[in-house]
Amino acid sequence: MTAPLGTARLPGTGFGVDLESAGYREDEYLFSGSATTWTYDSRMRAVAEDSEVPYTTRILVRRPVDPARFNGVVQAEPLHPEYDTAPTWRALHPWILRTGAAWVGITQEPRMAESLRTEFDPGRYGSLSIPAPSLRYDIVADVVTALRTGKLWDGPEIARAYLSGWSMTGSFCRVFLGEGFHERRRLPGGAPVFDGYVVAISSGGAERAGYPGLSDMPPMDDARRTIGGHDVPVVELLSEAESETHEPVLRPDSDEPDDRYRLYQVAGTSHDSTGPRHVLTNQEQYRRRGLPVPSQRIIETPSDARLDFVARAVFSLLDRWVADGTPPPRADRFTFADGDLARDDQGNVLGGIRTPWVEVPVARYHPHSTPVPGACVPSPWMPMIEPEAMTWLTGNMTPFPAELLSSRYPTADDYLTRYRESCFALVDQGFLLWGEVEPLLVAAEQRALHLLPSS
Length: 455
Description:
Rossmann fold, three-stranded antiparallel beta sheet, 15 helices, Abhydrolase_dom, Alpha/beta hydrolase domain-containing protein
């Protein structure tokens, strides 16, 4: 039998993650039910249209083979509309595997269900059907409810379930919260389906991209674009790219019981700083079937920033907040100057979570890049997008001139000592886990080898 789309690993290709060596298994399920289509009334309030629309979706589940290893935590994500990719898995998989958590990905995009059914594998996915876009919110809640009530889960009890998304699926989470699905959907006994949320690389101020709405885009001054108070914690995790448009919807952090909220803005990161591309197999699977996939190249040097390293610490902080009530640390935010993010003399952003690559920099990090002419092919999901728009989401780095580097770091040892101290400081603050320190230091050693004198 062929592998499911987005399978954890494609043997012999270099794509994916080896679950077997980590003691994990992967299962795919088809799940059917009926859900509600939603729209807005004349006052832009959410109203139900049809409450009995049948659907069939698919679910990917990754969990420990040994039930005793399962830590009770499920990381659920609505799979991304582009190729059903899993950005939460991409960013979090090392932490998920080493802690014994489970991951669940849920197909929720009608166009993706159609592509799976008609193009990718009609034999496997011929029954998939998501007739309307607004069904997606109830579908995701249905699936996780079925997991938590034992209808789709034969393992140990699920103690905590989190919903997270990145970019378009981050905006999914924003709409899920803003339109009342969190309050509306409850487990037997009244507990919430989701115990917490991470809304990642999604700006509430980014027009339709930040809040696509149910049947139309709410106006830019709509209060729903700003995360409100709920009975579970909500964290927003942004790079520089989303922070540029997020200023109009900023709000204070809060520890109130009905409004636990944090915003984390990560310095030196861009929209695509979410981990190595080879972790996800989806586009390679499409390509191998002769189906179109996008490609792009930028003129500048691609950024080596790793927002995913900070994300693993942020998710760990969220879980501790839910599990034992320990509030996570607050973080400085970016500062603005004349409507833009303020930057230092070398061009790196001021404020935010101070990552080692901007605290001890050897380059200027910028969240937007320039396309190589003729080298950017858009996704079939967005065939009219311009190359400039594609690479707007791609970060780059410009190494400092030799004179500036030598004035900052007389030797490689000077640089590495300061970089190491910056990593340790971030661990002490709670925004970096020890598991990410070693790869950061290895990357720093490679930079030092190429840019700085050894003595």
